[in-house]
Each structure stands twice: as C-alpha cells, then as structure tokens.
Amino acid sequence: MRINDLKCYLAFAAASALGATVAFVSQTTMAQESAQGKPAKESDYYAIRSYEVPPGVELEATSFQRMPDGKLAVASRRGEIWMIDDPLGDDFSAKKFTRFAHGLHEPIGMDYRDGWLYVTQRPDVSRLKDTDGDGQADEFEVVADGWQITGDYHEYAFGSKFDKEGNIWVVLCLTGSFGSDALYRGWAVRATTDGKTLPTTSGIRSPGGIGMNALGDVFYTDNQGPWNGTCALKHLSPKKFVGHPGGFKWYEQAQQYMGKKPQEPKDGSRFVVEADKIPEYEPPAVLFPYGKMGQSAAGIACDTTGGKFGPFSNQVFVGDQTFSTVMRCYMEKVQGHYQGACFPFREGLDCGVVGLEMQPNGMMFVGGTNRGWGSRGSKSFCVQRLDWTGKVPFEILEMRARKQGFELVFTKPVDKKSAEDVGSYEMKTFTYIYQGAYGSPEVDATTPTVRSAKVSEDGLRVELAIDGLQRGHVHHLISKGVRSAEGNAALLHSDAYYTLNYLVP
After folding, report:
1. What is the C-alpha to C-alpha distance for residues 147 and 131, in angstroms, rounded to an integer?
2. Considering the entire predicted model, what is its pTM?
3. Domain limits of the chain?
4. Is-contact 313 303, C-beta < 8 A?
5. What letter would DSSP give residue 33?
6. What secondary structure letter does DSSP report for 188?
7. How far apart are CA 91 and CA 74, in angstroms?
C-alpha cells in the first residue's frame, strides 16, 4: 500500500484489486480524440522522464528540495539524502547523483533556510550543513523533537515546507491504525526554528503527505482506515480536529495551545452530521473515492508557476502510492470551509508515488517506493520528472458548487450543442460511514438529475442545474458527451468527484 497498515491493506487489496483496476481504467480511458480520430493520451501533454540512480543504491524518494547552487536534494526512506546536479537538464544518468547525508531515520520532508537543509525525520526536525564544501553534510543539529516514538513501524512523520511564520508543520502517524502509544502520535504539530514544538491539530490517522495551497494554507493526505472511510485531502488549522479520536489522550498536555478536548464523534455516523455537532471538527476537503481515484493518497504539490505547468495554476496535485498516479484537485471555500473536486491527471509512474515537488520553471519531481506495500508501478523505487509538453489538454479545469448545481470551467471552449445537451452528463452521489472500523463501503447512493446545461458566451463555462444535490456526498460527474468547439474532441478525463460538505447559501 503506502506508508500504512500492511495487514489491513492486504485484506482490502485481495478483495478489491480487480474491481479497483477496472474502475480506474474505465474512468481514465483516453476518450479525447483529434479531428483525425487519433486517441489523445496523457503523455501528449505531460511527459515522464526517469532518472537512473547509481548502481546498488535503493533511492526510495520521499521528498525533494532545490538548493541555492541549483542541485536538487532527494530524501530517501532508507535514511539518505542525495543531490542531483543540474536536475532541470536533459541528462538523467546516474553520474548526476552524489550522496549528501546518511544515517537519518526515514526522512520525509525538507526545506532550506539560511544555509541549512531542514529535514523532518521520524523522531525530530533536524538541520544539516556542509561546512567544509566537500559536498557532504558534516554538521547536524536537532531543531525540535517535542513528540515521542515507540518503535512501532507505523509511526512516520511527514514535514512541510516553512509556513508564513517560519514554522514546519509535522503530521505524526498513529501507533498502528487505531491508537496513540506515544506523545502526540495522531497529531499535527508545528516545529519552530527556536526549538519549540507546538501541538496544533488533533485527529490524524495515517498521513501520506503534507503541503500548502497557493495561499499558504496547510493540507495533508490521510488514508483509508478507522474513522476514514476512504483516503482524503484535509485542511489543517490550529485548534481543529480532523477525524480520528485515537490521540485525544494528549489534550491535557496540549491544553495551553488547544483548549478543551472535543466531543467524541459518534461511531457509525456521517462526516457532516458530526461536523454540525462538533465545532472543532473539520471534515475532509476532498474525498478520493477508494478504488476509483486511488487507494493510498500521498505527497502534495501546488502549481504556483503562473502557467508554466499548463492550465492548472494554483491547483493542488496529490500522489497515490498504490495506483502510482498523480491526481489533481480544485478547491474553493464554501461557508468558510475548503471543499472541492478531484480529477485524474497522470498515471504510469514507475512505482508508488510518495514525494511530489513543483519547480518554478514548471517541472514536477516525483519519487516513490513499493517496498512493503506494493504498487501498480512495478519498480522498487523511482525518481522521475513530469514535464509539460506545451500542449493544453481539453479538461474540466474547475468544478464549482452553486446554489442550484455546479459550474464547470473548461481549459478550452466547448461545443455548445454537445455541452447544452443534458444527455452529455451523468451524476451519481454516495458517501462513507464515519466509523471506528477500518474503512467503509460507499453508502447512501443517489442519482441526481441534470435538469439543464447553459454554456457561457466564451464557451469556457457551463452552468449545470441539478435536482437532488446531497450535502455530505461525493458527487461523481461523468461528462462523456461534451466535445470541444475546435476539433470535436472528447475530454481527456470525463470523470470528476466533488465533495459537497457545505451547500452554497
């Protein structure tokens, strides 16, 4: 799976592998065609470039950081940090790699500041420096270590970049899937550069990545398991609770930062039902339907390149370890809460995706592993790069909640006739049980009706009037009949999944 509970994964994978594969292949079928009838492919728009790592090195890449000298630091799950010389160039050979540090404890998260490479590893945030200029770190300092570990394999720590206040956010996996046997396991904390550890958000289960949107708000991915019916992208903010009560025991230690412990969620309820009862509870911003959009949500990167990575400026990209894919997310705020849609983006990575990193020039670095959990990508580890080819795919760019339905924004003008035909669309909804048991099936399914579709004058927007919106449900929109105005092409990806936690007033 990903960095998750292996025993639980094996039970779920055996039962769902075939169905999940069929569902994913179905939804990502490249239906888009050119005027000559040639099927469009993801690779037409985003090319995968693979690095050859040095012989004998198992570089299970978890995170990346660009250095002032232009090199790219790559952290490995095996406790090493490697540097890639000229990472934006066209030489992908092993000679570009040199080892910068080793002996770390599963580093997952890096940033650079004031001459130091800051690294989040399982027991702490440390910083490293090469003081003699020989290309290897020779000075190591612990910055913050205000949490504990037991030795349980599940107790990973994922670190962010520096936030606006100069803090690194760290999401700490529970002990196993259900409990918290060491201080702040199942919490997000902030590590300050002056050595403090600030307990910040409770309710973490099994993170796969952490990152920020274009505004600097912090998000992390959590994975299917107890109190998590499916994988999700969740918003982190101080004094909030994000779903799993296993770490509630530490509120006494965190009282000066967090206040009182929230009410326990009701086992067997629904996300939005509990959000209405528990003021501290922040429901998932984007749910990733299990077996359809992935099975192990992981690293996060935001496109802040101003169009150098294509038409998806300011959107968030999320990796999936099991499916070896990168997904795309559009988010908005409704009634003060983040929510939004996820879309397929790029499949076919060499192994399970863990780390993502966007570069200012519009290149995305991708790294991963399949050791212990398996992935569709058959390689044991990978360091790869996604390069935009300069071609713009015909896609749903944004899916926005409206009082009467949804507004769709497209990357290219649509053909008015096809886009105003309600038969071009299909919608289904479902949700998940909010429960202490492991995962959840899709439940409470409904079939809303697309009553009308209205195209804007520029052809880039379609207003869908929907009868039967369901608060708290994932709204699965299938737009197979929509065609582009130029070339009569179908959408590259016709599936979108919007998590409608809050209705537009």
Report:
1. 29
2. 0.93
3. 6-388, 396-500
4. yes
5. B
6. E
7. 17
| Residues paired with 462 in a beta bridge | 408, 455
Concatenating the DSSP letter of every residue in 315-339 gives -EEEEETTTTEEEEEEEEEETTEEE
Mean pLDDT of the chain: 93
Is the separation of the CB atoms in 184 and 172 below 8 Å? yes
Burial 296-323 (b: 16+ CB within 10 A, else e): bbbbbbbbebeeebbbbeebbbbbbbbb
Residue 309 contacts residue 276 (beta carbons within 8 Å): no
Separation CA 422–CA 480 (nearest Å): 11
d(CA 229, CA 225): 6
CATH code of domain 6-388: 2.120.10.30
Q: Where does the pLDDT of residue 256 fall: very low under 50, low under 70, confident under 90, or very high at 90 and above?
A: very high
Q: Which helix (DSSP H) or strand (DSSP E) does residue 161 occupy? A: strand 157-162
In the numeric block, which tokens belong to residue 136?
């290897």
For the domain made up of 396-500, give the CATH fold: Immunoglobulin-like (2.60.40)
Residues 169-196: pLDDT tens digits?
Answer: 999 999 988 899 999 999 999 999 899 9
Cα 34 to chain center, whole Å?
31
